[in-house]
Specification:
Elements (H helix, E strand, L loop, with lengths): L2 E3 L2 E13 L10 E10 L3 E8 L7 H10 L1 H4 L4 H13 L14 E7 L1
Antiparallel strand pairs: 1-2, 2-3, 3-4, 4-5
């Protein structure tokens, strides 16, 4: 178990990324996709975030966020955790500290 939530245990975190190249000179039209899968004892949460120019989620910053928010996370339900993680993406807490997250599209799928 990595982290304990209210009513769930976080067992594993998987990170994947992909991109479609845009213009060769300015990268316009590029699409950068970050995918994080949180595996709990009673559910799986798949988060996809995509935007142009930069990856919206940085793996190192994601881990720092999980560790620094451990105490707060332990008080959250799965729904609250998903809402807070989405907010962390928008507030740039899990993106590269030098990159901007703008126009990011976020989808969260919960499999019970």
């Amino acid at each position: 178990m990595l982290l304990k939530l209210k009513g769930s245990d976080l067992l594993d975190v998987k990170y994947d990324f992909d991109f479609d190249k845009g213009c060769e000179t300015c990268d316009y039209g590029s699409n950068y996709l970050s995918e994080v899968t949180f595996i709990f004892n009673n559910a799986k949460m798949i988060v996809k975030a995509e935007q142009m120019y930069e990856f919206p989620i940085n793996e190192g910053r994601l881990m720092k966020w999980l560790l620094s928010e451990n105490e707060e996370i332990s008080k959250m339900t799965l729904k609250q955790f998903s809402e807070n993680f989405k907010k962390a993406i928008i507030d740039e807490k899990v993106s590269d500290e030098y990159d901007s997250v703008s126009g990011v599209e976020i989808t969260i799928k919960m499999e019970l």
